[in-house]
Amino acid sequence: MTTVRVRGIYATAVTQLLTEHGLEVVQASEPIRARFDGAFEATPADVAVWTTRDRQGLEVSGDPEGVETVVSDLADLAIDTFHWRGDAARGAVFDAEVLEADGGGGAVVDLGDGRRGYLKYDDVDGYVDAGNRYRVQVQEPTPPWDDDRPRVRPTLEVADGLCTLSRGRTGVSADASGEAAEELVGMTDLLSADRPEGWGLRWHRSATDADLEAMTAALERAAERAAALEAALADEPDEPSDPGVLAAPQRTDWLWFGRESRFELDAIRRDVETTMAGHHRIKAADRAASGAVDFVEAVCESPAEGGEFPFAAVGRQFGPSEGDRLEIGHGKPDGRRLSLGYGEVTDWDADGSLTLERTMGGGGTYDALGTPKAEGDVAVTKFREGRWWYPTTYRAADGSSKGTYVNVCTPVELFPDTVRYVDLYVDVIRTPDGSVDVVDADELEAAVEDGLVSEELAAKARSVAEAVERALSK
Fold it and tell me: Does the domain at residues 93-155 carry the CATH identifier 2.60.40.10?
C-alpha cells in the first residue's frame, strides 16, 4: 500500500480522499489526527503532498509509482483541476552552469534542456561567476505557473519525512529542542539500522511521534536511497560537465485547483469537519484569512455549510475592493502563468463583480480585433467571481469603443492581489462595427489533442463561447 504524508490547507480533504481510495496517510499533523477516528502511523512515506507556497495547488513528490497512484486519485477532482508533470523533480541531481551572477542573493544556472535553477550564493564556497559549473540537487521545486526557479544546492540529500541523510552534514542531530532532541539523538544508537558512511543524519520533528521500529524503517529506507543515488552517480566524473540531469530518483507532479475544485474539496472536507462555504477558496486567497476561517468554524456549529460563498464579507475584510490595484493572472493549460498587467478597481459590488481599468500604451493592434493601439487608450475589464468568461472593452481617449474581447476561461477567482483563472483559448470578439465572431477555436482543439485540456472542459468552453456569441449578437 502506498503511504502518503500530507501538509497544508488542503490536508483534511486530501487525507479523506486518499483514505477513501485505499491509500495510507502517515505522519499526520496534530489537527489531522484530531479530526479522524483512525490512527495514523509515524512510518516512512512513499509520497509527500504539500500545498504550494501560493496556496493555488499541490506538489506531489516521491516514489514515481506512488506519485502516479496519488495523482490518479486527485487529477480528476473537478472540471478545472489541472495536472502537469514537473521537469525538475525534488531530489534530482544536475550538472549546472552559472548563466547570471550579477548581484542579488543568488545566481541563475542552466540545468540543461531549457531548464533553469536558482543557486543561492550562501550555499556555495567561494566566489560565484558566470560560467562556473556545479553539481547540484533540487531542494525546492517550483510549479510551472510560478515565476521563481527551482532552488538548487551543491549537496546530496535524501529524505522521507522522518529523517534526512545529507552529504553536507556530519554526525546525528534533530530538528527539535531540549529533551526531545536529546531523546531522538540518543535513540539512534538503539536502532538496528546504521547510518551510511559519509552521510550525516538529521531527525525531523515528526520523528518524535515514532517508535524504534518506525525510526529503524526510516533510517533503512533513507540509507537505501542514499546508496541508490551514489550508484547512479558512480560513473560520472568528479568534476561537473555540461548541464544536464544525472539522476532523478523521485518524481514531482503539480496540481492546480480552480474554483470548482476548491468547492469540491470543501464538500469532501465537510464529511470530516465543520466546513463553511468557500473554506478553501478563502484560504487560497490570503494567509491572514486562514485564521479567520478556522475561528468561524470553531465557534459555529455549521457556518454556511452548503450555502453561498460569502464574497462580500471576504472582499470587505481581505480585498479586493474599490481603489485596490489588481493584477490579471492569466493561466495557461500548459501550466504557465502570464501577467496581463495591473489595473485599478473602479467599481465593486457585493455580488462578486468588479470593474478593472488599465491605461494602455501605443503601438501594434489589439489581438483578434485588429484595431490599432494608441497612447491613452483605456481597457475596461469586468470580472465576476465564479463566471466562466470576462469581457474587456478597449476605449480611445475620447471614449469611443475600439472593440470588445471576451475571454473564455475556468471560473474566475478574485483574490486580494490577483484575478486568477486558466485561459481556455477560445474567445469571442465584437469589433467596433458591431460584428461578432468566435476566435481561436482551433487552438482549443489543438490543446485537446495535446492532452492539455480534457474533452469535458473543452465542451464547456465551446458552450460558454456559443452563449456569449448569442448574447453579443442581440
Answer: no
